[in-house]
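Chapter summary example.
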Amino acid sequence: MTYATIKFDIKDGVAAITLNRPDKLNSFSDEMHEELRSIMPQLESDDVRAVLITGEGRAFGAGADLSSSSASGGGLDAGETLEKNYNPLILFVRNLNKPVVAAVNGIAAGASMSLALSCDIVLAAKSAYFLQAFCHIGLVPDAGSTYFLPRLVGSGKAMGLAMLGDKLPADEAEKMGLIWKTYEDDELMPAAKTLAAKLAAGPTMGYAYIKQAMNASLVNNLEAQLKVERDLQQKASGTEDFYEGVSAFLGKRKANFKGK
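The structure predicted for these 260 residues follows.
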């Protein structure tokens, strides 16, 4: 299928999504949201064992495309837009039972930064930067930024990023724990594709349980989280991949995980 605002393909278990509005710095439009929603069922299929998200051209994404909205005329209901488009996207990525990698190739601003932070592992080019742009137009960080930022970098850094709206270079983002790792610009996509392929060849159900455990830990106390670990470990130890992993370990060979 051909898409107007994204590129999408599935190969060897990896679903690659490229936000593809380079002339608009891959900012979100209603059409992009519609196309992203249309591929969600495919991302949940057994054919996909890892997801890679990046942007076309010199940006990961510049947030919402205000030029395509009624914001300039004062007729934008941002809450309605969040409810319809952004919130379902962030929840889908966060709850998808597959590992999701973001390859931030350039600016990641506003809701595009939120999308990157919703992914499980975030890589970035050294020339890339992150920007909480909301304060510059009198808005509140959204699409999950007020959730992710304090948990990733602490309330002090989160407040500074949100209220000052300064550019955060990728290397600084790595140092403060906002993202996993940075790469030279020409090394980003090869590294991201290698990582996605590695995850696609891994124990898919185990990864899903890891995501569930980590998400639960953000709201649980220790006692509740220990119960979550117990329940998920019970499920994980019943998977085919667990038995394959143990067999491979004992046989001193590489495991051949099937994602089951």
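To summarize the output: Residues 78-95 form the longest helix (18 residues).
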